[in-house]
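step 4 of 6: structure.
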Amino acid sequence: MAYLEINRLTKSFHGNRVLDRIDISLEKGTFLSLLGPSGCGKTTTMRMVAGFESQDEGTISIGGQSIDSLPPYKRNIGMVFQSYALFPHMSVAQNVAYGLEQQRLSRGDIRKEVANALEMVQLTGYEQRKPKQLSGGQQQRVALARALVTKPSLLLLDESLSALDKNLRSAMQIELRMIQKEIGITTIFVTHDQEEAMTLSDCIAVMRAGRIEQIGSPHEVYERPANTFVAGFVGQSNFLKGALEEVGEGRARLVLGNGNSLFVPFTATGSAYPQGTETILSVRPEKIRLTRDTSAQTGMKGTIKFITYVGSTFTYLVEALGQELKVQRQNDSNDHSFRQGEDVWLAWNAEHQTLLAE
Amino acid sequence: MLKKGIGWTYAALVMLFLYAPILVLMAMSFNASKYNALPFEFSMRWYRELAGNDKLIDATLTSVYIAAGTAVICVVLATMLMLWAVRTNSKLKRWIDSLVILPLTIPWLILGLSLLLLVSAAGIDKNFMVLLIGHVVVSLPYAVLVIKARLQSMDLTINEASASLGANEWTTVRRITLPLLFPAMLAGGFLAFVISFDNFILSYFLIPGGSSTLPIEIYSSIKFGFTPEINAVSTVMLTATTLLIVLIATIMRSSLKFFLK
Amino acid sequence: MDRKIWLMSPAVFLLLCFCVVPLFIMVYYSFLSDGTGGHWTVQNYMDFFQKDIYLKLTWKTVKMSFYVTVISLLISYPMAYVMVSIIQGGKNMLLMAIIIPFWTSQLVRAYSWQNLLRDGGLLEIGLRKLHLIGSGPLGLMFTSTAVIIAMVHIFFPYMVITIYMSLEKVDGALVEASKSLKAGPLTTFRRIVLPLSKPGIISGCILVFVPSLGVFVEPRILGGTQGTVIGTVIEDQFFEIYGWNFGAAVSFILLAIILLSMAVLSRFAKEEA
């Protein structure tokens, strides 16, 4: 049995099913991100783990112990809120000490623990400040110290970085990850930001409409998305929907809905994809090569419609076989010589495409 | 520039309308003439007579006791009510919101006499208990509104933060909610005090025979004849409530400033 | 969750027993013939609707409240407008200055007009100095006009506040957008600012009109014989005449008028929104 076990968690509000049989199991020390658009149930899932909401069905256990019947204050779970939720009438030190006081520690121990926690988040010297005298990043650190100082069995982070500006945010991401690894605490992070989820997590659960669409390592979720939703939500994807014909050695013909067809690279065995199998081919913009050489075995011809330049990359909007595809290339002296209106050949490798059922 | 001049002039005229009668009343309380006659002649005579008027002083004390009782009861009831309201998503809440506002929509005249009818229907004599309850009923909405405003400006997730740190609900209320609510409770209490202290109509209907409050004394001297001390006592009353209101406003504003990030 | 219901029960119990129940008792009394006893009757209501004098008094009360509301609006709107758009610095001080009297004793404020309005009072002296009136007495005291002046004085701050709050919410960019579309200041005011401040005007009207219907102290102090309104009729029934059942009926009719006018006015507000 894994450290954190969530089994068939289900919840309805006014007849709306907001969570539908959520299953998660995490090993100790894992950093899991719940990723999804707003209303997908990620926050509800976290609040159920914290005990602020109760499930209709399903069970949650930590370290083999069921916590379903425990009120929030007996669950020993640390949480960093989106708004930080620091106590405005208490100083930094009092905020951090609050949880320790509930555990009835001696005064001396509390002072020591508070000092250690503040040192960990590099806020030594700020003990007597009030929360409103701190910057957003500092408040974030206090909230983290306050959540960790009680040595909880689980750390919950609710969109905790979303209030920070971009530079501070990436600095905090790194710091957060370092602290999390160092103390080895199992963590659940709720976010709608796929980049942040990729950066921080050992494991990502992509959620939509109360269900987990895919759960796996960032690499798995990105390189092998389970469906078009995951492929489109985590990073960007081009989708070619059609039927597989003429499955042969190394390539197959994909007949698109509009009657056009192209050869795509193909390495799977034919038996898994009999003639006429409907499929959605997904390929990421940065995996597509653009060339002027039109003699390739696979791929398609297209016309560059529009070019956007964002410094480190170029994004080409290419029209090919009646579809629009996005192609992203590094800004490395070789590749940016294409002009708008130019005809190009688009090609990609078999390992960079995913064939999806839906 | 012209626009500005017109604007300020207009504001000044409105202020004159608002304050002239009050200021004249205050000035007259220092006028020696018994009939508020002019020319003005400064005198502290009415204040001296006030100090010797035991009936007025008794009535004032009665008013203060009732107002203080009203304030304490209102703060306790309003705080309890709002602690419930922030924690519940019960359907009752909307009904209770309307119930609390009800005394604001019904004229005090009607509230007062319906309470009088209640007393008579119950077959008991008018007494201070019913009077106090009447004052609580009309002052409670104000205390609730002040405390509610504070709660609405508060980040309620701090209660959850407290729970996640291992504090049970009572500890959370005691260490987090109440300290943050305290300025609003204070302001709500003072406001209930002022409403009750100024209240004439309910006292008029419900006061037991032989007793009196300050507003009742003022009303009867206005009605039954010219008593120059009334200027003095009104001045004292206006000054006292004005000071309290300024105090309330200061508490509310500074508390908001302090806690709003 | 509902373990916590004890927290709200004292307040709710108090309001039910001492605000809602008494109103029902009042209605009950209004259908009794004699004090707490007698028999069931609608005679109290018949008395009210069959006697010209009560209908006239009702109409007078409504008319008076209407005047008070209109005059308050005429004073308050420009005041609120000036506070929002012209006076920037002293806004908070001014707001405080408007609010403070609103919490002081209505009784004392009504009485304070006596010094000004009575014959030989300050207003008479002042007007005579300016040669605006002749040598006769001012004749304002103990008239409906005196009552209306005092009521406006007491109630208009409510309206300044509500209009001020709605005007403050009007986005300055809207006004600029209107001007950029070549609308003059008057058009901008009429088409943009006024409609957007309507909710404030309507809630201000409710806050002035409704309490005006139920006054009795101001007419007693400043109205003299002209100062008879529904409120004073009710008071008389309870303190002078001991016609409690009739008094209860009149109170109930007053309450009905109040609820009706609130319903009508808030319907207005809804239509606008």
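step 5 of 6: annotate
 - Residues 256-261 of chain B have pLDDT under 50 and may be disordered.
 - Chain B has eleven helices and no strands.
step 6 of 6: archive
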